[in-house]
Every structure is written in structure tokens, then in C-alpha cells.
Design brief:
By secondary structure, the chain is mainly α. It has a domain at 52-112. The protein contains three helices and no strands. The radius of gyration is 19 Å and the shape is flat. The chain starts with a helix and ends in a 13-residue tail after the last helix. The model has no long low-confidence stretch (mean pLDDT 78).
Length: 121
Amino acid sequence: MFKPKYRLLLGLIIFLPLISQAGLVPCSGTDCTACDLFLLAQNVFKFVLETIFLVVTLIIVVGAIYFLTAGGDEKKVKTGKTIIRNALLGLAIALCSWLIVNTILYFLSGGEPGEWWKIQC
């Protein structure tokens, strides 16, 4: 579709405004504390998860377009199915990694349920 160097440029053009608007950094100037570092990590984690869902949705739409416009061309049908399958697989990997981290932190905290991803200072 796009050459790799253009994919990176396109990604930067799309995501840089999102990052600057997202309010990832909770402090400004030199008034940052250690708590702000943890809040930054929480904000980045949340932003990445939201971005993953957005990107997966867009990739599934691209795969569906390949699939629906195939017109009997087996190569396009196969490409569309592969794109959709890989997008869903990537989403599953992202969610499973979150589940693994959640389970490990659950057991390390003594089995007490908590919301480790919600930091309050």
C-alpha cells in the first residue's frame, strides 16, 4: 500500500496532533513530582490502549474494503481475510498482555482486587 518510510511519516502526521492534544504530561515546568511520573505512565498506558483500538478498527475497515471489492479475485479475498485476521490477532495479543500484567500484579499484591492502572496521588 505505502512504502515503509511513508508509513512512518503518515503515522507521525496522524498521531503527533493526537499526542499533543492528549494531555499526557500531568505537570508543567519544574513543579513535577514523583507522583507525576506515575501519572505520566498511566496516561501513556491509557493513550496506547485507546490508540490500539483505533488502529485495529481502521485496519479492519481496510481489510473489509479489500474483501468487499474483490469481485471474485481470490488474491484480494485472501488479502482481505489476512488483514482482518492479523488485526484481530494483534488486538488479542495487546489485551492478553494487559491481562498477564494485571494477573501478576494481582498475585503480587496478596490477591487483593485493585485497580493498579488507576493511580491516585
